[in-house]
Amino acid sequence: MEFQCARDAYCEGFHRLRALEAELASRREALQRGAEERNYLRFLVEELAGAGVSAGEKARISAELHLLENAEEVVRQVGTAAHLLYEGDERAPSAFDVIARTNKELGELAGDSRPQGTLAKVVEALTRAMESVAEAKDLLAELGEMPDYSPADIERLRRRLDEINRLEHKHRTPADELPRLLESSQATLDTLETTPGEVEALESRVAELSSKLVAGARRLNEGRRLIARHLEGAASRHLSKLGFASAEFIVEVFEPEDPSPEDLREHGLGHVEFIISLNPDEPARPLAEVASGGEASRLLLAVKGALQSQLSYGTIVFDEIEAGIGGDAAFNVAGVLRDLASKHQVIVVTHLAAVAAAARHHFDVVKSVRKGRTDITVEELTGERRVKTLARMLGDAEQAASRALAEEFLRRMS
Questions:
Q1: How far apart (Å, rounded) are the C-alpha atoms in residues 59 and 89?
Q2: What is the CATH number of domain 303-414?
Q3: Which residues, other chains included, contact 329 with Cβ-Cβ below 8 Å and sequence gap of 6+?
Q4: What integer pLDDT is reported at residue 22 of this predicted model?
């Protein structure tokens, strides 16, 4: 737990160092860039900030200007429409008067009794028409009110729209994007406004943090060496169970003799290497140079078995882990796999009956060729079918001895 906290603290410091280094590089670049660019950005920021264009302003001004420029024509046309609908005279009655008179005459034609049939529908339609005309008259009255404006207002809006159009054209940027251009230009200018003193201060911070991280990384490696001794012992015990009785397993933590900040990595300094000797008369060599495929799987199983309480993997896959083993060693391999499977999902590809018998779920993979195409099917085996498959793995699915041994394996590993 203490080591984990130290490693997390180092990682946090490492990322902070990388951020400082990036900022330092940017500041150094800013010092090298000419005063001409800074002067241009200052002018651009002053111009855009002074204009104060906001998103949506151009569309808003255009709509308002259109309304004011056409206000007199709008009022004239609205007045004409209102007169035709509601304000006629005897020589030229309005639409409302014509409808009202027609409605009255049809109502009198029906007498005192309630109109029926088609006549009733006509009267009802005319009544609705009168109501609609009255509503339209009220709406036109609202439109006909002259907006509160002056020629100076129109001129002010025109000048503002001209200014926005000029900035759009000059900076080749849509009006709604001008505020964002101001923001990004100001940020760039802030970066370029760098003094040698600011660069020196950043250099000092980078050097100080780098020194602390180098020391912290070396302490992490000391902790790794202590953990490595425990791992060597636990892995060696598992190796003995897995058929490597004479194996020597060593964990080496390498780091530069005189580490510098350039040697720092996200998880510290140097690297860790697994070194192994499988036989007493063989020199210890890196794991990648020693083991075959099946041996490498068992060596990996030994390491994972030793570390199973620390592993965060959801699924672990082993392929042909049984190469070169048999007898009790096979059951030992199966037992380690079962232990590992108590905390993780373990998938094993195997031809060894002892390993297959230890599985909580046994699947058979069958490849066949049909009409020139290769098909692969996977199905779970249970009961008699599992016994028969294990017997086939042991030699002959039909022999009583193989079947009895398969059943014994299942009992032993249950």
A1: 44
A2: 3.40.50.300
A3: 241, 242, 243
A4: 92
DSSP string, 12-57: HHHHHHHHHHHHHHHHHHHHHS-HHHHHHHHHHHHHHHHHT--TTH
pLDDT digits over 125-176, tens only?
777 877 777 777 777 776 656 566 678 888 999 999 999 999 999 999 999 9
Q: How far is residue 322's CA from residue 307's CA, in Å, rounded to a whole number?
A: 21
Rounded Cα gap, residues 322 and 334, in angstroms: 9
Strands 345-349 and 362-370: unpaired
Q: How far apart are CA 231 and CA 224, in angstroms?
A: 10
314-346 pLDDT, tens per residue? 788 888 777 667 777 788 888 888 888 888 899
Phi, psi at 245, each rounded to 5°: -65, -30
DSSP letters for 348-364: EE---HHHHHT-SSEEE
Domain ranges of the chain: 33-192, 303-414
Residue 265 carries which DSSP code? Answer: B
Three-class SS of residue 373? strand
Angle between helices 117-144 and 71-86 (to 10 degrees): 150
The continuous run of DSSP H or E covering 235 comes out as helix 196-241
